[in-house]
Design brief:
The complex is a heterodimer of chains A (319) and B (310).
Chain A (H helix, E strand, L loop, with lengths): L7 H19 L6 H20 L3 H8 L7 H8 E6 L12 E8 L2 E8 L5 H6 L7 H17 L3 E7 L6 H5 L2 H14 L4 E10 H8 L3 E5 L3 E3 L3 H9 L5 H8 L3 H6 L5 E3 L10 H18 L5 H14 L8
Parallel strand pairs in A: 3-4, 4-5, 5-6, 5-7, 6-8
Antiparallel strand pairs in A: 1-2, 2-3
Helix pairs in contact in A: 1-2, 3-11, 4-13, 6-8, 8-9, 10-11
Chain B lengths: L2 H14 L9 E3 L6 E3 H6 L15 H8 L5 E3 L18 H12 L5 E8 L2 E8 L10 H17 L3 E7 L7 H5 L1 H14 L4 E9 L1 H4 L8 E4 L10 H8 L10 H6 L5 E2 L2 H15 L31
Parallel strand pairs in B: 5-6, 6-7, 7-8, 8-9
Antiparallel strand pairs in B: 1-2, 3-4, 4-5
The chains are: A alpha/beta (319), B alpha/beta (310).
The structure holds zinc ion.
Chain lengths: 319, 310
């Protein structure tokens, strides 16, 4: 278990309980179970207390937790016959973006998502979920295919942002993101998006421009990282807590603003504490969202998606 | 020179250049250091007469030079709700807005207008870098949508001059949502088969570049304009190496196939007229002196035949 900094007191209690039980294993005379159970209870209460009302900055930390289920986990668990399709037909295959054909509840779909990786080797391979232009161009190609063959598109968003690299810029990072967002708005098939962790700026918009956008309870979606915002507006990256607060990047605030259409509850203590339950909840949400679009014709679908975005911003957050 | 410079421009300039009238009548070029007389500079559209450095030009100054006789009608932009997030950094967002409004005399960072350019009816919008870095928030999004809707209604092409540091952080997610919102506007133009020309000016970065500013039918940039998604400083920090000379400048993008053209500001108007008239299937532009334009605003004039749609 990787503990976040604000979970330190919890780590201490859980550590103590673990120590006690280890001691008892070495000495059968000792009866520690009652004491250990009391610690478990204390830990459980503390966990509830910590997660009851996470501050926006703590939500950012949870959203970025390395043990959260990632795109690959969702695809493996929720889809069958996943057939990855690679490449932008132009330059390369971007491993920060996974995508291909698959079945969701037996229905053929196109699934696309950012993959961050889960150890040093895979993180480097997936470039920490930061896509280059080829990733967005692959997505455009897959969305085109979905559109031609009438397959719904499901996107799983989890990225710190598009990759700020030299080659990425030279090969048209901006244009690639713009085209991907444009494609999201043009396809005549349902587009369902779930933010499973971090929705970082334009790199997320390129996939998250959808008929319906769901967010996991502790996921975030923001125009800029709190650290980036703090360093620009507060001239101090360490003021990220205040920036996170001001940016209104939590699923709860985004729902009030009409950006997020559905919040998917996470297990107590966050998705990282129960991957299977989280994945199942996301699966149910995708299923419910797809059902809503079952009988929509393509013209109506495109028009409704356009209207959704044109109408955004009518609601503010009252103080 | 034609009639525009001869007799209309001086009058218009005297009305509109208040905000840029320097205390002393000289401006120092920040590129080559030459002292430039303000009238000489504004006649050259804020391009240094010594080194061709393209300085900031406000939307109004640009429109004065772009539209025939400096005559244009502003297109109304629906006002968004103020300060939707109740955003506060070291200053309150409404205070930042107010001081930008005071110093520029504008409502927000985008001006939309309709009129004729070389006798070619157009709608144009220009982003104002001097207004909070041209940043894209709800108002800018509304402006682009209003411009596209107006262009479609009048069956005219849309020219957009971009200039922005990116999204307006003080509007949080709603600034980010201007990426899809403005893309809807571009798609509406596309569907109506109307040309959408983007002129990228210095600087155009971030979410602005990654949405409406990169989706033009024709992409033109002013010389040496910085055009990027991630800024050079962020990239240097990420890759820990020095970037090549001219990286992310207009000419560099042209070399890498990201632009159609890089065009000097003083040649831009003729080029836009020519391109648009070809795309719209109109007669070649008339060269030389023209009679003074009809001063009736387009809204009260005939809209091209066939029924109007919105
Ligand atoms: Zn100069």
């Amino acid at each position: 278990m990787n503990y976040l900094d604000f979970e330190k007191p919890l780590a201490e209690i859980e550590g103590k309980a673990e120590e006690l039980r280890a001691l008892a294993r070495g000495n059968t005379e000792m009866d520690v179970e009652a004491e250990a159970k009391a610690l478990d209870k204390k830990a459980q209460d503390l966990l509830k207390d910590l997660y009851k009302s996470l501050t926006p900055w703590r939500k950012c930390q949870v959203a970025r937790h390395p043990d959260r289920p990632h795109c690959r986990d969702y695809i493996n668990a929720l889809f069958t016959e996943y057939t990855p399709l690679a490449g932008d037909r132009n330059f390369a295959d971007d491993h920060a973006v996974m995508g291909g054909l698959a079945r969701f509840n037996d229905q053929p779909v196109v699934v696309i998502g950012h993959e961050k990786g889960n150890d040093t080797k895979s993180r480097i391979e997936h470039n920490f979920g930061m896509a280059r232009p080829e990733g967005y161009r692959k997505a455009v190609r897959l969305m085109d295919m979905a559109d031609r063959f009438g397959l719904p598109v499901i996107t799983l968003v989890d990225t710190p942002g598009a990759y700020p690299g030299k080659g990425a810029e030279e090969r048209g990072q901006s244009e690639a993101i713009a085209r991907s967002t444009q494609k999201c708005l043009e396809i005549g098939v349902p587009l369902i998006s779930v933010i499973i962790g971090e929705g970082g700026s334009g790199g997320a918009v390129a996939f998250a421009t959808a008929d319906q956008l769901a967010m996991l309870e502790h996921s975030i979606y923001s125009v800029i990282s709190p650290e980036g915002c703090a360093s620009i507006l507060w001239k101090d990256a360490e003021r990220m807590r205040e920036a996170a607060e001001a940016l209104r990047l939590t699923a709860q605030d985004l729902e009030k603003l009409g950006v997020c259409d559905r919040i998917i509850p996470e297990p107590m203590g966050g998705a990282q504490r129960d991957k299977a339950a989280t994945i199942a909840a996301v699966g149910q949400a995708i299923d419910a969202m797809l059902r809503k679009h079952k009988d929509m014709d393509r013209k109506k679908l495109i028009a409704a998606r356009r209207k959704k975005y044109l109408d955004l911003g009518a609601k503010g957050l009252a103080a | 020179m034609n009639w525009i410079t001869n007799y209309v421009r001086p009058r218009i300039n005297s009305i509109f250049s208040k905000r840029d009238m320097p205390e002393n009548l000289w401006t120092k070029c920040d590129e080559c250091g030459t002292m430039l007389f303000h009238r000489e500079l504004s006649d050259n559209l804020n391009v240094c007469t010594n080194c061709d450095h393209h300085m900031v030009i406000t939307p109004r100054e640009r429109f004065n030079a772009l539209f025939d006789g400096g005559i244009f009608t502003e297109v109304e932009v629906p006002k968004p709700i103020a300060d939707p997030l109740q955003f506060r950094d070291q200053k309150r967002y409404p205070d930042r807005l107010k001081s930008a409004q005071k110093s520029t005399g504008e409502t927000d960072a985008m001006l939309v207008a309709e009129g004729e350019m070389g006798r070619t009816p157009i709608v144009a919008c220009a982003q104002d870098f001097s207004f909070m870095g041209g940043s894209m928030g709800m108002y800018v999004g509304n402006a682009i949508i209003a411009a596209a809707e107006r262009a479609i209604k009048l069956k005219r092409p849309l020219i957009l001059f971009s200039a922005a540091g990116g999204a307006r952080m003080q509007e949080g997610i709603l600034s980010l949502m201007q990426m899809p919102r403005t893309t809807v506007a571009v798609n509406l133009l596309k569907e109506a088969n109307l040309p959408y020309i983007v002129v990228l000016t210095h600087p155009t970065t971030g979410g602005v570049t990654a949405s409406y500013a990169m989706l033009g039918d024709v992409q033109i940039a002013e010389p040496n304009a910085l055009i990027c998604f991630a800024g050079p400083r962020v990239i240097e920090q990420t890759i820990r190496e020095k970037l090549p000379e001219g990286f992310q400048r207009a000419e560099y993008l042209l070399d890498h196939g990201m632009l159609d053209r890089v065009t000097h500001r003083t040649a831009l108007r003729d080029e836009l007229v020519s391109i648009l008239r070809m795309l719209m299937g109109m007669e070649p532009p008339i060269k030389g002196d023209l009679p003074a334009p009809d001063l009736t605003p387009a809204s009260s004039k005939d809209v091209p035949e066939t029924s109007e749609t919105t």
